[in-house]
Each structure stands twice: as C-alpha cells, then as structure tokens.
Amino acid sequence: MHVHASIGSAAYGVPIGRVAAGGASRRRAAPVVPRVVTHRRRSLAVAPPAYGESRPDGTWIEAPTNAFGNLINLAKGQREIVQAGTPILREIAEEVPVEDIDSAKTQELIAEMLAICRGRGVGLAAPQIGVPYRIFVLEDTVEGMSDVSPEDLRSQDRVPFPAKVVVNPVVTPATNLTAAFFEGCLSVQGYRGLVRRWLQVRVQGYGGDGKPVDFVAKGWQARIVQHEMDHLNGVLYVDRMDTRTFRRVDKLAEPMPPDHPEFGAAPREGPCAPGEGVKIGNGTARTAAVSGVDDVEGFIGKKAGKAGKRRKSR
Ligand code: ZN
C-alpha cells in the first residue's frame, strides 16, 4: 500500500544525477534548475491514490478521477457473468498479492465488478466474471430494495449500505444463530433455493486500496458476504440449499413441499451444516406459500412477477 512513495523517490532520484553530470562542463548555470524540478516531483509522488480509498469497515470510496476509468471500462464492454457448469466457478480462487491491489489491473477489475454488481444485484465475486482472484464486492441500496415489503426487510434484517470491496477475505461466524431464506445467484440464472446462513459474520481482509479491513456484517449483508465468500472457494448456493425447495423464479409464489424446513427470520442455534443442505430436526412440517422471498445477488420482485406471467417457451 505504500508502494507509490518508495518507487517515487527511487525513480525521481535518477534525473538529478543526469542533469548534474551533464552540467559539469558548464560550470555556472547547471545546479539551480534540478532542485526545483525535484521538489515538484516529490510532491506528486505522495499524492493520494488515483482510484479510491477504503474504510476499516470495507466501504470503498471511489475517487472522482475513477470516473474516467469507468468510462474506459464501459467502452471496453463488460465481461459476461459465467454460468454454473463453467469450471472456474468450482475452483479455489487465488489470493491477490497485497502490493498488487493498488495496481491498474486490479483497480480496473474492482471498478468493473462494482459496475456489474450495481446493474444487476447486491454482490459479485471475481470468479463470476472469469477472474480467479479472491475479491468480492457488495452493495445494497434503497433503490435496489424498493420492491421489498417493509415486513420482509425487517425479517431479513436488510438495510442499505454503501459499496464494499474485500480482497483476500477471511469470514468467520460471529454468532451461533442462523436463519433460512431464499437465495439466488447471477451464475445460476432463473432459480432460487432456501439456504441457511449465519446471522452475523466477521470479515477480515484488505480493502480496495490495500488497507486492512475488519468488520462485522449482520443480517442480509452477512448473507451476501457468505454467498460471495463461497464463490471464492468454488462453492455455489445449490451446494448448501435445502434441495427440495429448489425452484424456478417464476414458481416462487407456489406452495412449498409439505416437509419443507421452517423458513424466515426465526433464528436457531447451531451450525449451517455447510455443504450438506439444511435439515430442520423438529418436524414442523406445513404447507405454505412462499412470501417474503428475496435474492442475494440478482433482483427479483417485479421482474420475477413479470417472468411468472410469461408463458414458458420450453
Ligand atoms: Zn452467486
């Protein structure tokens, strides 16, 4: 993260020597000019990073100059979101060397991920656009949750938060309580499944500028974090869901199977049973329409309603 300062002073040391050596044959005029140039260049070398800054809670404040980078990315066109079946979604993503986080390559990737996330959902992991790095972004806005009822927002503990970027994340449970809600994934388009997740997790890693981040995510944000973290480990929500709840988006309002697990905010103690699906042991079987479903990555709501009215083409 302090790469700029050290590279700057080393690089800018070189011209002084050259000018002084060249000026040796002309004894009077040479010494004055390079000092002024050196001073100016040094002040440039300690300028703040061009791309943005992270806060300890992972919040990513994009620098205004990054607008230009975003325009370039727009002109280049965004990468496609890869779909389940693509091998990269099953691979363990690579750590990003900390000194590379501030590089143009990584910064352009982060900007692109945020642009895609903003347009389509509330979270995205780098492998979903074909890049095998341990980076995820998340953001939830008032606009994005505008079609979710106040009751559902309450039960999901869903509140808006600004864009967060986490590089090389480490996620650990910060409670022993879990809750089950429907999830979807931009890489498993058109489907949803019920997934039990921790209600609070601690997130440690690096922000978008390479500074350490360490924060506790709760409620819906905690769910998004766990979903994105899974992507970095080659895990999809379908590996964790209650398989009997799996359904197309246009079937979300249909009744659940009679033995479906308890759904909703009611927290319970104990592990999420990662990778084994979710089983409820108390046998509270009932048939009920699914209300209050929402998504982790892609938006549903109105769009899902429209899809439900469309006739299936195949
Ligand atoms: Zn996903």
Strand content: 15-25%
- The computed structural class is alpha+beta
Task: Give the termini distance in whole angstroms.
Answer: 52 Å
Give me the number of helical elements.
7
| Strand order, sheet with most strands | 3-4-5-8-9
Helix and strand pattern? HHEEHHEEHEEEEEHEEH
**Which distinct ligands sit in these coordinates?**
zinc ion
What is the average of the pLDDT values?
76
Biggest sheet, open or closed, and with what strands and sense?
Answer: 5 strands, antiparallel
Shape: globular
Helix content: 25-40%
> Strand tally, please?
11
Low-confidence stretches: 1-45, 274-295, 299-314
Tell me the radius of gyration.
25 Å
Describe this entry's structure for a reader.
- With 314 residues, the chain is of the alpha+beta class.
- It has helices at 3-22, 32-45, 66-76, 104-120, 150-156, 219-232, 302-309, and strands at residues 52-54, 60-62, 123-125, 135-140, 161-173, 177-185, 188-198, 200-206, 212-218, 242-248, 264-269.
- The strands form three sheets. It has a five-stranded antiparallel sheet with strand order 3-4-5-8-9, sandwiched between helices. Strands 10-7-6-11 form a four-stranded antiparallel sheet.
- The longest helix is centred in the first third of the chain and has 20 residues, at 3-22.
- Bound molecules: zinc ion (ZN).
